[in-house]
Write a structure and sequence with these properties.
heterodimer, A: mainly beta, 5-stranded mixed sheet, about 10% helix, B: alpha+beta, 6-stranded mixed sheet, about 40% helix
Chain lengths: ~150, ~850
């Protein structure tokens, strides 16, 4: 089975929402690393972390999506995404499985979806019992767009 | 093109480029000394080799241009043509044309369609003009050969009798598949009374496309007509073209030439061994190695800081070895990336010559310290700023000959480039003996441009006025030339220099000249940084920007930070130092105690300012890593690094910090007004950076900063003893320690000394100030009473020393200061310690 195929998604949860990113875009998933805050930047940038000697910028997906901040003791996880400018990390609440989806179950986001999320969600796969939201990683990681 | 051919082409391009750079230098040199035979020979050889290889590779345009140049050079070499500025310019143009064509060939694999026939014609015209100079008797009388002029202009005035007797020459046009002007590969040079130039080559022959095979078989010259077109690949190593050069001297029967040629050949052989010991390495590979070493340094730092298994002696030993090996490896890899600054300077003789000629000036360029090395990334970074400064000096600095003569200066101006290492930095000075900066005009210009008010201008010192030229849009050039004076420039130069952690300073004396002094770090990849904290975050401040660290404690702490109109300042040595709070600049909460103030005194844009941080932790060697693009837009951070504990720390960009805090926009020059006086006197003196420490009593002792590795403060308890030696553990090693108090002979009577001491604030006995000095056998810690200051001074002749261990006495900052004889004092430390007094006395006797 070729996991790099488009039909496979690495899934995760953010504020109860079920997201997916194409497996081919994901470099790795690692547990929370201590972050160094970068002053004077957008609050979307959670900080910088050391990924085996490489400095990686971590983006808090909750802030990016305009969702309420994380509460409690639980630490987020890093979904490290490959980009043309090196790796970047998305902070998510929880990791799900890698799943294969049926292309025919894809649908564009509903018109009722508004705000930040509308920009960042490419569409949804109708799975049994729930929806898998496809995250537009390029947009999610584009800080110029997300700056507030 | 098959891969062999591609190799040949690549070698050719690479080699030709290097040779052309040398040609530029040589031509300018030759203009000064038109009789330098070996230079002519070298230029000739380069042009000849390019021509030959071009023919071989089928670049006919390039071949015909170089051929024309070769003819001119041959005439020069045979003394049938005299060097003139016009000729130099034409030959320089030739070098440019060839360079352009090579670039084109590299990019596209074919020659450009640009027409160089005008240049060719120009060269030929100059060449034909040559009979104006009487040929020396040694060389055959050049016989005009009108019958040939039509078909082969290059051969037109070549002495034809020996050639005519050569049946090959006659045969050539018959079999040549190309137009006549291209063919003559055996023009005048073959007749030269000189040994064949290739023997004089400083370059070892490249392995593939050897331009001069060591022992050429006397080939039938016919082959050389256009062999490449027909020759199979094996012919490459035979390189038929230049071969005929060899038999000819012999055929002339001039026996005197052979020994010379052989001697030259022997020299060439010596050079070959140099080629055996050096190889070309891909820069990408070096960069990768550098990155890996960077990782290793981080890992080393992490291991050294880890406390686990610290009791295990084996582990301790391994740790120390790792530490040493890493440092050595880092140094070694760093060295591989080093290039001599001469690689940029090589371009300057040409730049200066062309520019001086176009401005109608006469300028002599002197260079000192071309071998001074720095990292290749830095070489790239300072290339443009340096070129700008050099052009500026020629264009604005040095006056026209008539003005110079009127000012009783030699008509020829002098531009001096000097580079040297000092205190872990590369210093570059660009000095001209021109008219100097006109402070009145700068003042007027500043007022006209609305940069300063008339009232401000009247209060500004000369030195402060000079700083204005570094502002954007400021130019004092009376006329805008195509070279400079457009008002973009000095600010860009300064920004570019400061971007790489360097500084630029300017000294100028009206009528006598201007000196620009640049200080450049050796490398950018690994730097020494001061680790500070602010609002729970750690930041790195590049140590190159740090002038000093100040810690104010106790009840006074806050009182010593005074407010001027809401802006905090601190009195630093009698001058007001503007302060900014790092947490405030970064909009972070501060976590510092109220009764401790840590000030890091920084220098940016020629101004000093203090940054208040929550704490100062340590200095550390850090590996600079770039920030992602999204963070680069922030001028506040120069990069990031990974600390020993694996966490990321941001590196502060001092210029960005200063700008954000708006300290540098203030006009107050904290460097004070007094020092332009001293600048005036010292324009020519050698300036030295000195560490001033307090000696026993209230005396002052200066130590050259070049000998100082670090300044440290330790609790007195770090001192340990082994035998009679005083030692301490320092950075994983055992370091000898000596106390200046016990080493130096005190000449004052105890009562006088006591009196001198009593007027000083009580000496803190629980801590010691240690100056870590460098010497080949290992560093030595020198305990001093107090570290006072670091100054840059032009030292005059010191007064003879009053006691052993001193070089003499000089006046620094208006006070008599003893100059420490570092070597003599350091000899008192370590296992082979020698006591100071007898030895020094011997020396005096």
């Amino acid at each position: 089975m070729n996991l790099a195929h488009d039909g496979h998604f690495c899934t995760f949860f953010v504020h109860g929402l079920f997201f997916g990113v194409e497996v081919s875009r994901v470099q790795e998933v690692i547990r929370y690393q201590r972050l160094t805050r970068v002053p004077l930047t957008s609050n979307i940038i959670a900080g910088l972390m050391n990924l085996r000697g490489q400095i990686v910028t971590a983006i808090d997906l909750r802030t990016r999506l305009g969702l309420p901040a994380r509460e409690g003791e639980e630490l987020p996880l890093n979904v490290v995404i490959r980009t043309s400018e090196g790796a970047m990390s998305l902070l998510v609440d929880q990791i799900g499985d890698v799943i294969e989806v049926d292309e025919s179950s894809f649908e564009l986001p509903p018109h009722t979806l508004i705000g930040e999320a509308r920009e960042l969600i490419r569409g949804a796969y109708k799975l049994e019992g729930r929806l898998l939201l496809v995250l537009d990683t390029a947009r999610a990681l584009d800080l110029a767009e997300g700056a507030n | 093109m098959n891969s062999d051919m591609a190799d040949v082409l690549r070698d050719f391009l690479e080699e030709s480029r290097e040779n052309l750079d040398q040609v530029d230098i040589d031509l300018v040199e030759l203009e000064k000394d038109p009789d330098a035979r070996e230079i002519i020979a070298r230029i000739f050889r380069t042009v000849h080799t390019i021509k030959g290889t071009c023919g071989f590779l089928g670049f006919s345009t390039l071949e015909s241009v170089t051929h024309a140049g070769e003819s001119v050079l041959a005439a020069l070499r045979d003394n049938t043509l005299q060097m003139t500025p016009l000729l130099t310019s034409a030959l320089l143009q030739l070098a440019d044309a060839v360079r352009d064509m090579l670039t084109q060939i590299e990019a596209t694999g074919t020659e450009s369609a640009v027409d160089y026939s005008a240049l060719t014609a120009h060269l030929m015209e100059l060449y034909r003009a040559h009979p104006a100079v009487p040929p020396p008797q040694k060389s055959p009388v050049p016989a005009p050969a009108p019958e040939r002029a039509g078909s082969a202009p290059a051969l037109a005035s070549v002495p034809s009798s020996p050639l005519a007797s050569n049946p090959a020459l006659d045969a050539r046009p018959l079999i040549s598949p190309v137009p006549a002007p291209l063919i003559s590969p055996v023009p005048a040079p073959r007749l030269s009374p000189e040994p064949p130039p290739p023997r004089l080559s400083p370059e070892p022959p490249p392995p593939r496309l050897s331009p001069e095979p060591p022992r050429p078989a006397p080939h039938v010259p016919v082959l050389s007509a256009q062999p490449p077109r027909v020759a199979p690949m094996q012919a490459v190593s035979a390189q038929p073209r230049p071969q005929p050069a060899r038999p000819e001297p012999a055929s002339h029967g001039n026996a005197a030439r052979s020994p010379a040629a052989d001697a030259g050949g022997g020299g060439g052989g010596g050079e070959t061994s140099k080629a055996d010991t050096s190889i070309r390495v891909d820069v990408g590979l070096l960069d990768k190695l550098m990155n890996l070493v960077g990782e290793l340094v981080l890992a080393r730092n992490q291991i050294i800081q880890s406390r686990g298994a610290s009791g295990d002696a084996t582990f301790q030993g391994a740790k120390q070895r790792l530490n040493l090996i890493t440092s050595e490896l880092q140094e070694g890899v760093m060295k591989t990336r080093m290039q001599p600054i001469g690689t940029i300077w090589n371009k300057f003789p040409r730049v200066v010559r062309d520019l001086a000629a176009s401005c109608g000036k006469r300028v002599r360029l002197e260079m000192e310290g071309e071998q001074t090395e720095l990292d290749r990334t830095l070489i790239e970074a300072i290339k443009d700023p340096l070129t700008h400064l050099v052009r500026n000096s020629v264009d604005h600095g040095i006056e026209k000959p008539e003005l110079r003569v009127a000012a009783q200066k030699p008509a020829e101006g002098c531009l001096r480039l000097r580079a040297f290492h000092e205190g872990g930095q590369v210093n570059i000075e660009i000095t001209d003996d021109g008219g100097g900066l006109n402070s009145d005009r700068i003042r007027q210009k500043g007022i006209d441009n609305g940069i300063i008010t008339a009232e401000q201008a009247s209060r500004m010192s000369e030195r402060e006025l000079f700083q204005l030229i570094f502002l954007p849009g400021f130019s004092t050039a009376a006329a805008v030339t195509n070279v400079s004076g457009r008002g973009v420039g000095m600010d860009v130069v300064r920004t570019n220099i400061e971007r790489i952690g360097g500084t630029i300073d300017l000294q100028s004396t009206r009528g006598l000249g201007t000196t620009m002094s640049l200080k450049i770090p050796l490398t950018l990849a690994i730097i020494r940084g001061v680790i500070v904290t602010s609002g729970n975050n750690r930041y790195v401040i590049p140590q190159a920007s740090v002038l000093k660290l100040i810690r104010l404690e106790g009840a006074d702490a806050l009182r010593q930070v005074e407010m001027v109109h809401g802006a905090p300042v601190y009195r630093l040595m009698g001058k007001l130092l503007p302060l900014v709070r790092l947490s405030q600049v970064l909009s972070e909460p501060s976590t510092s105690d109220e009764d401790v103030v840590n000030i890091v005194v920084l220098k940016a844009d020629h101004r000093q300012f203090g940054v208040i941080v929550d704490s100062v932790q340590d200095t550390e060697e850090i590996v600079v890593k770039p920030l992602g693009k999204h963070l680069k837009v922030m001028s506040m951070f120069a990069g990031a690094t990974i600390m020993g504990d694996g966490l990321v720390a941001l590196i502060l960009d001092i210029v960005g910090l200063a700008q954000r805090a708006q300290v540098v926009s203030e006009r107050a020059d904290t460097r004070g007004r007094g020092d332009h006086q001293e600048v005036r006197q010292a324009a020519e003196d050698k300036r030295q950076t000195l560490l001033i420490v307090r000696s026993p009593g209230d005396g002052r002792i200066a130590i050259p900063l070049a000998r100082v590795e670090r300044l440290e403060e330790f609790p007195r308890t770090v001192l340990e003893h082994a035998g009679s030696e005083q030692l301490m553990q320092y950075r994983g090693e055992i370091m000898s320690v000596l106390d200046l108090r016990t080493v130096l002979v005190e000449r004052r009577s105890p009562s006088r000394l006591e009196r001198a001491e009593s007027i000083l604030p009580e000496r803190k006995t629980e801590t010691i100030s240690v100056v870590v000095c460098v010497r080949p056998e290992g560093n030595v810690g020198v305990i001093v009473d107090q570290i006072i200051d670091i100054v840059e001074e032009a030292l005059g002749q010191p007064r003879p020393p009053g006691r052993a261990g001193m070089v003499g006495s000089v006046v620094i900052q208006g006070r008599v200061t003893e100059l420490l004889d570092v070597d003599a004092v350091l000899r008192c430390a370590g296992p082979n310690a020698v006591s100071l007094a007898p030895r020094a006395m011997e020396a005096q006797a």
